[in-house]
Amino acid sequence: MNTDEVLGIFREAGAVLEGHFILTSGLRSPVFLQKARVFMHADKTERLCKALAGKIRKAVPGKIDYVVGPAIGGLIPAYETSRHLGVPAIWVEREGGEFRLRRFEIAEGARVVIVEDIVTTGLSIRETIDCLRELGAEVVAAACIIDRSAGKTDVGVPLIALAEYEVPAYPADRLPPELAAIPAVKPGSRNI
Ligand SMILES: O=P(O)(O)OC[C@H]1O[C@H](OP(=O)(O)OP(=O)(O)O)[C@H](O)[C@@H]1O
Ligand SMILES: O=C(O)c1cc(=O)[nH]c(=O)[nH]1
Ligand SMILES: [Mg+2]
């Protein structure tokens, strides 16, 4: 599946939003990929995640013990991708702002692949890696449906993206005037 097909699915679902958005990193952007509007459709989610699972299988040699999704956005794609990989899916969720593996135990040395929805700065993946490494897991790769950095983000492990789609993002104190003129909204769940 190529980038045009992935973006086609997002557009068809009405998931490519335009306005003024506060991203989880604090950056501001005129475009927000509202993945929830894609993941509400099982058929669309299946097509995307089956293709992502195929890319992961090609890129990751050896056994994968778990797929880990960072909540909330990573929950559905991690689960659906894990189904195609034939491995269990678990998740990290925020407790006091920090990602924690609150509901599961993993053995020391477990080989895990993180599956995210969207990557912008890679911050959420790096936080997930920190949490998993503290527990003794080996993060062999990370994967996402759309990489908004188009390959520029370094998360410290190989990042497998189903699609790369570069979207502008600006620090809050350096907004272009057309963006500054629109009231900002924050769709994600960090800090709520
Ligand atoms: O690469 P980054 O700069 O970290 O941005 C991407 C992250 O932002 C979104 O999560 P968010 O924290 O907004 O909440 P959500 O998972 O509930 O959507 C998205 O799900 C990714 O986790
Ligand atoms: O960077 C983000 O927070 C982000 C961007 C985006 O397009 N979609 C999303 O869910 N999060
Ligand atoms: Mg998220």
From TrEMBL:
Enzymatic reactions: orotidine 5'-phosphate + diphosphate = orotate + 5-phospho-alpha-D-ribose 1-diphosphate
Protein's recorded name: Orotate phosphoribosyltransferase
Superkingdom of the organism of origin: Bacteria
Protein family: Belongs to the purine/pyrimidine phosphoribosyltransferase family. PyrE subfamily.
Gene Ontology molecular functions: orotate phosphoribosyltransferase activity
Gene responsible for this protein: pyrE
Organism: Mesorhizobium vachelliae
Residue span, Phosphoribosyltransferase domain: 44-153
Subunit comment: Homodimer.
